[in-house]
Fold these 2 entries.
Entry 1:
Amino acid sequence: MKIGIIGHLKFPIAKPFAGGLEAFTHAYTSALVKRGHDVTLFAAGDSDPCLPVTSVLPNATIPESKARLGRVCHDWIECVEDEAYASLMLKLGDGDFDVIHNHSLSPIPLRFSHLLPTRLTTTIHAPVLPRMAAEIETRGAHNCGQFVNISNANAGAWKQLLPDQTVIHNGVDTACWGRRQEQKQRRAIWFGRILPDKGTHLALRAAHRAGIPLDVVGPISDQNYFDTEVMPLLRSCDAYHGHRTHEELNALISRSAVTLVTPCWDEPFGLVVAESLACGTPVAAFRRGALPELIGASTGRLAKPGSVRELAHAILGCMTLPGQICRRVAQEHYSFDRMIDQYEMLFQRQTDWTVPTEVAA
């Protein structure tokens, strides 16, 4: 198939990834190329040149905002992105793509979806976003294309606006995550973007209460939060590793006894969970959003949202869970191959494409 992928423009689709959406888009694009599809990723020009990128903007908007204005200016970002997406959709209207798959968080592709030669497919990666919600209410969901959600929990949050959704769980490359099995240490790990919504400070408090050192890994998205809420809690036995490469993060997760996931909001999915399980590392998490959907009794423990005491108990409860079972669950339920298979079946229903004989074999 000839597939156009609309990426979001806030960060480059490149390593080291700013967050889960960038990592997903990179891996998704690469996987479709490997399966023989003719893929074009429409994204910021500073994305990975190894991807089949067509530049929508020279540079991603959040780093560009910081460089130009000295701060993240959301009004400027919104204006630049809206113009870029509108221009892109006009060009796509003259194209010959079999599938146009939207992974942006913008309402503009929905607004111009009627111009496309094929029905727009949008994967919902976020909780209800006001601008997207307003666009769907104005146009009607049936006029905006078809929608895929990444979890049943997130689909429920969007149900009033989008009564007809297909749920396809996100996946990770289980041949890549956990490929090196490290000797487990009695340490916990927390990884992701460091900002209040992710609850890094709660992970540190729970780890201390459980008597387990914590490794913190990830880019600092809110410097004030890190300086005032996270840094003061780091003890000599803990470590902040900064923003690490995929390979370094893989090794850190694989050596850890447990991963902590501490959202202060309803996570739509939680790639952190899938990545950890693929590395053979169980997960202690708050019972929010999609996390109860992803974590079972054999792969982790759940705690009341915001409860440091319960999370500490969950950490200790994970210590005896076998890593091989965690990895098997990831391979069977959260692999990228499984996810790509489901997307291909979805696209097959919308086009006349069939799996080539050599691929089917």
Entry 2:
Amino acid sequence: MKKVILSILVLLFTNSVFSQKFEGLGLTPQMGWNSWNTFATDINEQLVKDMADAFVNLGLKDAGYEYILLDDGWMAMERDAQGNLVPHPEKFPNGIKAVADYVHSKGLKFGLYNCAGSKTCAGYPGSRGHEYQDALKYAEWGVDYLKYDWCSTGKLNAEEAYITMRDALYAAGRPIFFSLCEWGANKPWDWAAPVGHSWRTTGDIYNCFDCEKDHGDFTSWGAMQILNMHDQDTLRKAAGPGHWNDMDMLEVGNGGFTHYEEETHFALWAMLNSPLLLGNDLRSMSQETLEILKNKDIIALNQDALGIQGFKYKTIGSVEVWVKPLERDEWAICFFNHSQAPVDFSFDWSEHIIKDEIFNKEIAFSTSNIYKLKNLYTHKESGSTNTTLTHKLEKNQSLVLRLFR
């Protein structure tokens, strides 16, 4: 116990001199897999190994996904006599370091979950009052990522609570990606950029395209509710390399969406630079779902080094037009039919000048300023802006184009 106290005192002294987050992490939005959406607290060592194997065998690692993240429920219900977190003895009989080592052996990174309050959302030990002690354990185990929730927090100040854990992680010395999960309740986009590498902007996502789920004491949200929950201009100006808005994990492959809705969900999360964190069972997904999740052209929008979050340009009838500036003066445009019926639409490029006033980007179309078009679902070139675009979109279907010279 004396050694633990001494280590924490050393960390506190070090932290009084150096207080910051780890730089150089999250220069593009994080990509990976999280256990919660499908498995909740029903997790174990073999599940982690299976998912790490699937990353490699299915080509997800090669597509850019790198984190295997264990959400709530990985720890025992009580800390040990020294106050340390203890892995659940039945779920993780060989401990967390053995699991992290296996993930690392696959060339991947490993992450854990905890909470700023006294208890996690599922009732396991939270980090309140143990931040520096827990950070030491994460470093010892080889953790690369911490998702930090906001249950059982009482009257805690959110910004201060997250700063405390940020400082503890930094003092422990191992570079750990810090994902803030306080649901947007305290407007983290106003203060979280120097604190963490991403922050949740909403409550939990629910496995439906366009609905709400009332759980009694909280509400979960469909993909479209999350997409439209806040003023995007307010949020997008706060995001960029090393600090991202997080619209929660993906529900692609979990059965609550049509094929077109899965495509649209994935594309819009990519367009808005939300983390691409898979939430399905990788061992049993269909080939169609795998193709959506491995779409290199859609992923490239999310991972574009310019790091500018997309925004809604306008709505034409039932078709929403979302745009995203890219490197090399290229642009992405997503035409999304947000209606219950098919629609034939046309888009005369010459009638539009798209301006991103926040990041000082503009694209105008004329006979002397022509862009080629690439359909990011077919991966084929499909005309240019010199001709009016005409297309039929089914219910909730999208068309995503990359504009290039």
